[in-house]
Every structure is written in C-alpha cells, then in structure tokens.
Amino acid sequence: MSAPDRTVRAKGSTRHDHIVEDIRSLIVDGCWPPGSQIPVETELAERYGVSRMTMNKALGQLAREGFLVRRKKSGTQVAQPRAESAVVAIADIRDEVRNSGRAYRFHLLARRVRAAREEDALLLGSPPGRAEVLWLQGLHLADDHPFCLETRLINPEAAEGATGQDFGDLAPGAWLLEAVPWSVASHRVRAVNATAAEARLLALPVGEACLEIVRRTQAAGAWVTGVRLLYPGSEHQLVANFGPEAGDGPVRS
C-alpha cells in the first residue's frame, strides 16, 4: 500500500491538518480499504516530510475519529465500517452486519438445558427461581470475522418451542424476535475490557476495550430472555434518535 504524494495544502492549514485530511480522503475514497494494513509510522513520516511525533499525533487523531485501529505488535489498520445499534430498539444483529456491507453468519459455541443458578441473576436482574433454563453461547460473524459474542438465557416456559431449536444456523435472538412476543425490555450498556477467554473468541488482545450490552425482556410478567452481547469497541457504536417531544411518549428508532 502506498500513499500518493499530495503536497498541495489549503491556505493556513498545518502539516498535521494536511496529513489527517489526506489519509482520511484515502480511506473514504477507497484507496485504503477497510481492514488493510497501512505503512508504518516511520515510513509515512518520511513520505510526508514530517517528524515521527507529528505523524504519531495525526494517526492518533484518525484512530479517535474511527478511521484507523492501532494495536501494539499488529500495527495500524483501516477500521471496518462501524455497525450501529439503536439504543432503544431491539435490533437484529443480522441487520447490523448486513447494513455495514458484510456477509453475516452465526456460529453456535455451546448449548445446554440446565437448572437455573444464582449466577443467572447477572443476566436476569433477579434470581431465576428453580425452573430449567436454556443456556446458549455463540459468535456473530461479519465476513467470517468475530463481530459479537452472545451469551443468552431463555425461559422455555415463556418461549415455547425454544428447546426444540438447535440454533446451529439461526441465532437465538433472531428466532425470538420472530416467534415470541414481549412487552417489557431493559438495556444496560457499559465499556468493559475483554477477559482472556473473551479475547480469544473475539480475536482481540487481552484487555481490549469492548462494548457490553445486557438486555432483558419480559412477557406477561414472566422473564423471556436475558442476553449479554459483547462487541469489539473499535467496530461498534450506539445511536439514538429523539426529538423535543420524546418525553411525551415512546421513543422509536
């Protein structure tokens, strides 16, 4: 990958501004496609005729803006288009991936029916009682690259037919959206660092920043499902649309 020699700068712009604008244009115009490795910092500094410190600051700004992903040892890459989730709506992850222009696939990692445990309260918000639960874990993939790690509990009594699904190809969230009505939902969103096990599944460095969404849904007073979605932080963002009358009624995305 090479950087074209673009020496013309807008009047009054600094070298830093020029570099940021130039590299941003290379990415937006498709000269440097998503996922591609860019030249090393020292090489870019030489091409643009600036110090390594100036180049480092320019690349740092582009990383903060979401155009680049910088990781120790693996260098700097052009970021994938960020997928978006609505903060209020319950989105289908298939749509999140496809809307970013990538191919979607779900890979089931584990599935078991077991007795409810006290630790399940982390996903459900309260002790689940003594009923059996369906526990699932799987990876949502974008162009066969890990996109989201899902850990889910389903109440078989509220989600009739769930235990009969193998979820080998169809993700449980997609099945629930189509098969099970719900009346109440809650979200909790926070930033977390990937554990060693999570980092391995998501192909990330241990401790990498991730976006965690914990969602719970109910129907007729009974819990239907609780899910923890873990996204690599560099590839995902949340959006919310609202207006001045949002407080007068339900928010829709």
From TrEMBL:
**SMART domains named in the record:** HTH_GNTR, UTRA
MF annotations from Gene Ontology: DNA binding; DNA-binding transcription factor activity
Ranges of residues in domain HTH gntR-type: 13-81
- Keyword annotations from UniProtKB, A to Z: DNA-binding, Transcription, Transcription regulation
Write down the Pfam families for this protein, in alphabetical order.
GntR, UTRA
Q: What is this protein called?
A: HTH gntR-type domain-containing protein
According to its UniProt entry, this protein's organism is: Methylobacterium aquaticum
